[in-house]
């Protein structure tokens, strides 16, 4: 069985979209894949409660408990490994996981580490993507599912969605329109990876 571990920091709506897709499309039977655990770096992440209610194993590894990024990432890697035991290395999906990962962590999960970012990459890497898209006068915005490399928000693009920016938009309304499309493209990207054996 191919295990999937989802990392979140907050609301977890992308995580929920992935869980629903896995359930509704029976990823276990179709691809031999199952969502093994949801891990958050924040104990108060709303998504953790939703995942628990679905019967999914959840864990919190709080970044505040570690003196530096390297030690947090080492604990995170250990938690991920312990969720999946001795089987195949897991697919690790960042779903609103708001931590920059160290090169050591990225290299350890190379080829199996995916992120969703709320902009049309390579535009607007980093934070405040919707504010910056509005300030730049963009007529379109969107989201990107991409492979994670050591450079923030830079890896190969797997899927993108595009939405119009409307004259009356503020960052909140634009974020909501983009987020609705994230829930479609993240499961689509993962489905394609599973079908292709991650190649
Ligand atoms: C999503 O818009 C996701 O693209 C973004 O955070 C939101 C999380 O929402 N991720 C990043 O900004 C990563 N740099 P969710 O918790 O409801 O899935």
Give me a quick take on this structure:
The chain is α/β, with parallel strands linked by helices and 199 residues long. It has seven helices and seven strands, in the order E-H-H-E-H-E-H-E-H-E-H-E-E-H.
Explain this structure to me?
- The mean pLDDT is 96.
- 40% of the residues lie in helices and 22% in strands.
- Strand 2, helix 3 and strand 3 form a beta-alpha-beta unit.
- It is built from seven helices and seven strands; from the N terminus they run E-H-H-E-H-E-H-E-H-E-H-E-E-H.
- 37% of the residues are buried.
- It has one domain (2-195): Formyl transferase, N-terminal domain (Rossmann fold).
- Bound molecules: glycinamide ribonucleotide (GAR).
- The site of glycinamide ribonucleotide has 15 residues, from helix 1, strand 5 and helix 7.
């Amino acid at each position: 069985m191919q295990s999937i571990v989802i990392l979140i920091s907050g609301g977890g709506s992308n995580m929920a979209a992935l869980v629903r897709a896995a359930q509704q499309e029976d990823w276990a039977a179709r691809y031999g894949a199952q969502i093994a655990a949801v891990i958050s770096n924040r104990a108060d992440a709303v998504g953790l409660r939703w995942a628990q209610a679905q019967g999914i194993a959840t864990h919190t590894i709080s970044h505040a408990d570690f003196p530096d990024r390297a030690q947090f990432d080492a604990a995170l890697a250990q938690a991920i490994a312990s969720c999946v035991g001795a089987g195949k290395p897991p697919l690790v999906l960042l779903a609103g996981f708001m931590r920059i990962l160290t090169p050591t962590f990225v290299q350890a999960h190379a080829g199996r580490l995916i992120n969703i970012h709320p902009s049309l990459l390579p535009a607007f890497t980093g934070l405040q993507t919707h504010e910056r898209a509005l300030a730049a006068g963009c007529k379109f915005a969107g989201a990107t599912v991409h492979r994670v490399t050591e450079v923030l928000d830079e890896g190969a693009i797997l899927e993108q969605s595009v939405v119009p920016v409307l004259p009356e938009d503020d960052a909140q309304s634009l974020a909501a329109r983009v987020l609705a499309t994230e829930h479609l493209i993240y499961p689509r990207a993962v489905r394609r990876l599973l079908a292709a054996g991650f190649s």
